[in-house]
Specification:
The chain is of the alpha+beta class. The protein contains 18 helices and 26 strands. Strands 19, 20, 21, 22, 23, 24, 25 and 26 form an eight-stranded antiparallel beta sheet that branches. Helix 2 runs antiparallel to helix 4 (146-159). Its EC number is 1.1.2.4. It comes from Prunus mume. Belongs to the FAD-binding oxidoreductase/transferase type 4 family.
Amino acid sequence: MAMSSWFSRLRCSSKCFFNSLALRTSVSRKLVRTQTTTNSESTRNPFLFWSRSLLPIALAVSAGSLALHPQSDPSLCEASSVNSRAEFVVKGSHKEVPRELIDELKAICQVNMTLDYEERYNHGKPQNSFHKAVNIPDVVVFPRSEEQVSKIVKSCDKHKVPIVPYGGATSLEGHTLSPNGGVCIDMSLMNRVKALHVEDMDVVVEPGVGWMELNEYVEPYGLFFPLDPGPGATIGGMCATRCSGSLAVRYGTMRDNVISLKVVLANGDVVKTASRARKSAAGYDLTRLVIGSEGTLGVITEVTLRLQKIPQYSVVAVCNFPTVKDAADVAIATMLSGIQVSRVELLDEVQIRAINIANGKSLPETPTLMFEFIGTEAYSREQTLIVKKIASEHNGSDFVFAEDPETKKELWKMRKEALWACFAMEPNFEAMISDVCVPLSCLAELISRSKQELDASELICTVIAHAGDGNFHTVILFDPNNEEHRQEAQRLNHFMVHTALSMEGTCTGEHGVGTGKMKYLEQELGMEALKTMKRIKAALDPNNTMNPGKLIPSHVCF
């Protein structure tokens, strides 16, 4: 095992910066195990798990100026309300929720609903996001079953009252805002693991199950779920936003890891999108239609997920570079070499500085690549040596690797908490986060051009990239009380998005559209694609009650 002083610097002090953050607060909640199938045996035992973080990891990119008015006829449209001057409050219209609907919801949910202002405010205006809306939900309900969800949705559709599904509240683009008021459906009480099929390597869960809790649940069986977005994210929300994470370079995104869904449509009907077979050519692919629909087509009530075997062995490697372009070039060369890495993460020198400040470390403040190799012990080490050679050919230095479990865990903890480390540099600032993704061959140029723009700005900006699949984020810190700061952050975000689109990339690799990215969709997808989406929306949700004002720009007509 190759060790160096680089890794010795990773050891946290007894009072780690992150342990002092109130944001680390969590609460215990129930995750109920109802069925586990191993070979031909079935067992039924209640099981408790600690659950998702109480507070969201939600730092958002601006929504711009978007008018979000419910439409009685979805084929009608409004003039585009996006203008060049950024506004950060999502507009909407509001009508009073009928008393009859309140009574119906109370009959369905009993005590699991609230009209309390503070609760409604917390659900309508996420604390750690500068996405805001002019209104908050009128009611928050907490269904416990698919049947209750169906009744809730049916009642809302009858009264033409908007619905906003709500998961772990970690989404970054205003997905859970309620600009038109209405009913917020919090899925947190639907958090059971319904069935685990060990031999088939799949699991059936309710949408309120967190991915971290799920992995604790399946680990004793030698299995894991490979997507790893922000802490606190739940499976339902992960499906809705088509998220991914650092392991997507090997295991794919949510689209690739969901076998089937059960979804409550706008009229209350419950649809099962597919069987449990690993592949099927039967009919339209409704599963992938719903994944990424962000609650605009239905409410997800059950998810069947693919699981993977926990790797036999892994090696984590770190290498420093003089520029981010050199680091990106190595990521591209590694992928072209045919090596099947499980992670390739890039952090620029500003991000490393933030980690040093936050944790009292002394890591080299240069652009850094982090790799993970998995397989047998011999294969993992062989991959490591091949990548070490590739790095040396692109100005890489200080290539070190770790096999010790605690050191590897500390490395990925550092990466996972990189976002919060940024606030050690400016504790009173907010963050705007980009999420562009381009074809892999364009990544080095995109990062290099973006980095020049970021470094020239007066704002503090860090780069964090899933370099193996062309997806990178920037954390742009700005003073929320300084309008020039806010406009500069928006300008930088626009620059990166438009540069990515010019390279046949996308405005969002994994965070989703919500309200924040709608203004870029026409340029990326074209008006005909947006019209097709709106036709689908109108067919499934004719009263436009399902999370209205999200995903599809209001000016799209058909």
